[in-house]
From TrEMBL:
Signal peptide: none annotated. The keyword Cell division does not apply. The chain crosses the membrane at residues 429-448. Keywords: Membrane, Transmembrane, Transmembrane helix. It comes from Streptomyces fructofermentans. This is Secreted protein.
Length: 456
């Protein structure tokens, strides 16, 4: 058992050991849990790759592209604009802060007429076309945020309808429509369905399998190495390998919780069950969640945090995964382990969050909220204030910033510099595709949540 989130392949710019110019120009985001568009060309070349590694090399990463005025964060939004905006808005709502109306409207304006969201659309006034790379993670994250903010039913309902339309036969979802199901994508969609008051049990696939069936199928059998954890996906031989990031997501999904999960009511921190793994062919979804929580509890038991195995980052902490683990552990009722990891984050995460931006602050807010502590007094810092400083000022008290007034193709023409429109089809630049060919033979591996990972 290990708490390491392993990785393989070449380092992305911004990782330890990369040239200094890259680190200075584009602060690393690989530790922020966002499902970047890693599978876009999988069906074509059979290779999953790391767009964050390519983003720093593409023209779209240059400062010449204006950051939309309603968007949180100042870095290039091509690969994570909708994701980081969704997390920021959801985190603010969680702590009873009304986001700025233009921040909410920006997110609503990113929606395609189909109901789906891409990672980023530089020109929301333009219709989504075949080249617009919509994905399940951006859509599910946006849906969670917009449901919390009481967006119009026409907005949220369209997102739900689209997510249902791209469900796989095994009951789960992949990052892109038509790609194999993975734990992270399936879990974030479950959280979105729950936010929309749609019971995942009532969302069967064409093969009459539910999202929970898909998650059970991704739970590592107890008798195998890393038993009880969730795998990201099966490998080419169908084997499941434990993955800490997928496990944190899988536990939440199995519990039917979203990113802003509440602590378990009446939880007393009892860990008498230890990491005992419940086995059997009739594994229930609750058993799968408990098994995953037990794996995470063991993983953080020694140091209070998970570790990264990014190339050149051996034995270094993984702040984003640790925050996610806190939410999963607290929601599972394992408050002792959650509290230990939260205390570690309070002491050590400030530099990471400041460098990584709004999604990182949101993750820490989710962790504090799930563990029942005040994010405004987090290791001497006010996470709510720090998050707010990365985007447009929140509305004054009494002002209704909960929006959804714009439709999926809203004309937010003041949001971007349209000079880059022709180079970015729905946030996917030609350089991005060229980069796939360059790294296809390197074995870069999956970069989910902005992190390269290897199923350990």
């Amino acid at each position: 058992m290990t708490g390491t989130v392993e990785a393989y392949g070449a380092e992305p710019p911004g990782a330890p050991g990369c040239p200094a110019p890259h680190r200075e120009r584009h602060p690393p985001i690989m530790f922020v849990r966002r499902s970047a568009a890693v599978l876009a060309a999988t069906a074509v070349i059979g290779t999953a790759f790391a767009p964050a590694a390519l983003a720093d090399e593409s023209p779209s990463a240059a400062p010449s592209q204006a950051v939309p005025s309603g968007l949180y964060g100042t870095t290039d939004p091509t690969y994570d604009g909708v994701w980081r905006q969704s997390l920021a808005l959801l985190a603010q709502d969680t702590v009873d802060v009304r986001p700025a109306a233009k921040a909410v409207d920006w997110l609503v304006g990113q929606q395609c007429a189909s109901g789906a969201f891409a990672a980023y659309r530089p020109d929301p006034a333009a219709e989504c076309g075949a080249k617009t790379q919509v994905d399940t993670n951006s859509t599910a994250a946006a849906l969670q945020a917009l449901e919390a903010l009481d967006a119009k039913d026409s907005v949220t309902g369209a997102a739900v309808k689209w997510l249902k339309s791209v469900q796989n036969e095994d009951g789960g979802w992949g990052y892109l429509p038509g790609t194999p199901s993975d734990t992270n994508s399936t879990a974030v969609v479950i959280g979105a369905l729950e936010a929309a008051d749609v019971d995942p049990q009532d969302v069967p696939s064409k093969d009459d399998r539910t999202p929970y069936d898909a998650l059970r199928g991704l739970s590592v059998p107890c008798a195998e190495d890393g038993g009880g954890a969730f795998a990201y996906q099966p490998d080419k031989k169908g084997r499941l390998a434990a993955n800490a990031d997928a496990t944190a997501a899988g536990v939440l999904g199995a519990l039917g919780e979203g990113m802003a999960a509440e602590p378990e009511e009446g939880a007393d921190g009892d860990t008498s069950k230890g990491s005992r793994c419940v086995a059997g062919d009739s594994l229930s979804i609750k058993d799968a969640a408990a098994n995953g929580a037990g794996y995470l509890a063991d993983a953080v038991a020694k140091d209070g945090h998970l570790k990264s195995a990014l190339a050149g980052a051996k034995d270094q902490p993984d702040y984003g995964n640790t925050a996610d683990a806190v939410v999963a552990l607290a929601t599972s009722g394992r408050t002792v382990e959650a509290g230990k990891s939260l205390a570690w984050l309070e002491k050590n995460s400030a530099d990471w969050a400041a460098q990584s931006g709004p999604a990182a602050y949101a993750q820490l807010i989710f962790a504090a909220h799930a563990a029942g502590t005040d994010p405004r007094a987090f290791g001497g810092a006010d996470l709510v204030k720090q998050l707010g400083a990365t985007g447009p000022a929140a509305s004054e008290a009494g002002t209704d910033a909960k929006s959804g007034s714009t439709d999926g193709n809203a004309d937010n023409t003041d949001n971007t510099d349209k000079s880059d429109k022709d180079d970015t089809d729905g946030g996917v630049s030609a350089w991005w595709i060229v980069g796939v060919g360059l790294v296809g033979g390197i074995g870069i591996g999956f970069l989910i949540s902005g992190r390269k990972k290897k199923q350990q």
